[in-house]
Amino acid sequence: MESKLLKNWKYVIIILLFLGWSIGNFDRFFMNYAILDISKDLQLSTSQTGIVLSSFFAGYAIMQIPGGWLADRFGFRKIIIMAIFAWSVFTILSGVAWSFMSLILIRFLFGLGEGSFFPAASKGIASWFPQNERSRAMSFMLTSGTIMGVITPIIGTQSMQDIGWRTIFYIAGAIGIIFTLLYFFFLKDRKITAVTRIENPSKGKVSLKDVLKTPIIWNLFIAYFAIYAVQWGLMAWMPTYLVEVRHLDLTSVGYISAIPAIAGIIAMLASGYVLDKLPKGKDKVIAAIFAVLIAVFLYLMAYAPNIIMFAVYQSLVTVFMSFNIILIISAPLKMLSEEVVGTANGFINTGAQFAGVLTPMLIGFLVEAFDGSYTVAFIMLIMFALLCAGSLFLIRPKKEVPSFENLVN
C-alpha cells in the first residue's frame, strides 16, 4: 500500500510541470517580441523573420515522438530534466546570435531541447493522476502557457527597452538551469503497483503502430495541427501586425496582447473541469462547433474597426481555442493505456509543431508577396479553423475498430 505522502505527491508533480512549462513558454514566447528588435539588428527581411520563427518548431516537432518514446521507455523524470537543461543552454545562446544562419541553428537546437518536455509531461500526468482527473491536471499545466501569454508581452517588451533582448535571453536561460536542480531533487517517477493499476487502469500494452491504426488518433492529429496553426500564426505575427498595421508602440502591443491571454487563463482552467464532467462524445461535437466560431471571429478580427474590438474578437478566439486544445491533448490520456500515452501524445503533438514550422513561415511569405497586407494570412488561419472543425465532426467515438477496441472508449 502506498503511503499517503507518496499518493499525494501528484500535487508536487503537477506544480513542477506547471513551473517547467512556464519557463519553456516564456523562453519561446519572448522570441515573438524580441524578433522586432532582432530583425532590425540583424537586418532580416519579412520572409527571413518567418523562417527564424519557424526554425524552433522544426526542432521541436522532430523530438515529439522520440521524446514520448523515451519517456515511456525510461520514465518521464529523466527526460524532463534533460529537456529543461538543454533548452536553457540554447536560450542563453539565443542571446549570442550574430547572423541569420546562426539564429536559425540556435533556435532549431532550442526546439530539439524543449521538444521532449510535453510528451514526457503527458506521461507524468497519466502516471500520477486517475483518469477522471487528467483533463484538469493537463489544463492546469497548460494554463502556465496562457499565464506566460500575459506576463511575457508586458515584461518582455518593457525589458527589451531597458536592458535589450540579448540580456533577457541570458537571464531566462540562467533561471532554467537553476530550476534543473529543483527537478533533480523533487521530480519522481511513479512505480507501477497493484494500487496504481487500480487507480490508473491500463488497457493492455500496445505499440505506436497499433495506436496509428486507430482512426480517432489521426482525427486528433489533424485537429491539433489545424488549431495550432491558428494559435502559432496569431502568437508569432500579432506583435508585428499590431505595430505595422495598427500602428501601436511596443509598450501598447504588450498590454493589448495580454488581454486575450487573460481570457485564455480562465478558459483553460474551466475547460479542464468541464471536460472531466461532459458525457463521452458530446465534448468533441462542442469542440467542432467552437472551431467554426473561431473561424467567424478570425474574420471579424481582420476587419475590426478599432483596437478595442480587435482585442475582444481575439479574446473570444482564445477562449474557444483553449477548450479545443485541452480536449484534443487530454483525450489520449483517457483513451489509451499508460504504457503508450507518452508516445501517442508525442505523435499528436507533432501535428501542432508542424503547424508551428509552417504557419509563421507561410505568413511571412504571404505578407511579403502581397505588399505588406495581412488579409490573405487571416484567410489562411480561417481555413485552418474550419479544417479543425471538420476533423472533429468526423470523430465517431462509438464506432470502434474491432481489432483495437481495447484502445478506444
UniProtKB/TrEMBL annotation:
One of its GO terms (molecular function) is transmembrane transporter activity. InterPro entries: MFS, MFS_dom, MFS_Na/Anion_cotransporter, MFS_trans_sf, Sugar_P_transporter. The chain crosses the membrane at residues 12-31, 51-72, 79-98, 168-187, 216-234, 254-273, 285-304, 310-333, 345-367, 373-395. Pfam families: MFS_1. Residues 13-400 form the Major facilitator superfamily (MFS) profile domain. Its main location: membrane. It is found in: Cell membrane. Gene3D superfamilies: MFS general substrate transporter like domains (1.20.1250.20). One of its GO terms (cellular component) is plasma membrane. Keywords: Cell membrane, Membrane, Transmembrane, Transmembrane helix, Transport. This is MFS transporter. It comes from Psychrobacillus lasiicapitis.
